[in-house]
Amino acid sequence: MKNILIQNRRIGYNEPVFIIAEAGVNHNGKLDLALKLVDAAASAGADAVKFQTFRAEQVVTESGEMVEYQKKNLGKVESQIEMLRKLEFDESWYPQVIAHCKKMGIIFLSTPHGSFASVDLLKDFSVPAFKFGSGDLTSLPLLTYAAKLGKPMILGTGMATMAEVKEAVKTIKKAGGDKIIVLHCTTNYPCPSEEINLRAMQTMMKELNVLVGYSDHTNGSQVAVMATSLGACVIEKHLTLDNNLPGPDHRTSSNRIDFKKMVDEVRAVNIILGSAIKKPTESEKKLLVIRRSIVAVRDIKKGERFTRNNLDIKRPANGLAPKYFDKVLGKRAKKYIKRGTLLNRNLI
């Protein structure tokens, strides 16, 4: 599978996992919190920090209702548009936040959550890739519009059937987009174990002919580690500065300590998986002496036949290998062999 370059970072199955810290709307409409989220993502070792670009009116109509997890996490009910107005990433923030990301050595990304206008805005700020949330997987005109700009495109696939995912990928390719990463995810916050279905990620790897990763909405780091072990080239997970802050996503996001733990564990996966070639490691080469050899267990006279009574298999391993034991039986000793001698071909 062809690798994809996002800014200065190569993404592919033979590359280190690309980790996205989903800051989302956890800035609560405050620039200082947005900058602190950049710091937290960078210090945790994420490759990118992602926000959301929208004006509330671009996302939902006045009659749109909050979804159940938002009602639960906020502890109140209001219209979705009222909630979103408080969570907008102000246009004046972009130069400062992008500059801060550059200073901290982390890639700035944002989801064009406000449709065509958001794509245009992010293009103007030279954001290196477009990440579309699961809710826009079926917004085929929007995907076409963005694909024509030639940037890498990352797609969330929560709530989707395989047919819908294939249709989105086909739409992007038809518009000229050839740098596609699809993320398996479940749109439930937090996602219970019985709804994760990581095997679906493997199915997408087999059938889509694009890079595949995982967007994690579960608690803890176990599933992100498992997804990485199964081959995910991208891991995305929500990040918050404090789970007790007001807002729809804080309670189900990872705090700084948990996010750093997840990053460290995901990074360790590639090290642990290591090489696909089965061979002794450097440390094992020093331990080969614990293998065994064919050895004389009593004195053997010249011309005497080798039998199970005068031979056995013992350590160390620098004599004739045990696999020759049955072939040696019945042959004769070429000369006197003292008890405890490791057999070699010159003695047979």
From TrEMBL:
PANTHER family: N-ACETYLNEURAMINATE SYNTHASE (PTHR42966), SIALIC ACID SYNTHASE (PTHR42966:SF1). It comes from the Bacteria. This is N-acetylneuraminate synthase. Residues 293-348 form the AFP-like domain. InterPro entries: AFP_Neu5c_C_sf (IPR036732), Aldolase_TIM (IPR013785), NeuB/NeuA (IPR020007), PseI-like (IPR051690), PseI/NeuA/B-like_N (IPR013132), SAF (IPR013974), SAF_AFP_Neu5Ac (IPR006190), SAF_PseI/NeuA/NeuB (IPR057736). NCBIfam families: NeuB_NnaB (TIGR03569). The lineage of its organism: Bacteria, Candidatus Yanofskyibacteriota. GO terms for biological process: carbohydrate biosynthetic process. GO terms for molecular function: N-acylneuraminate-9-phosphate synthase activity.
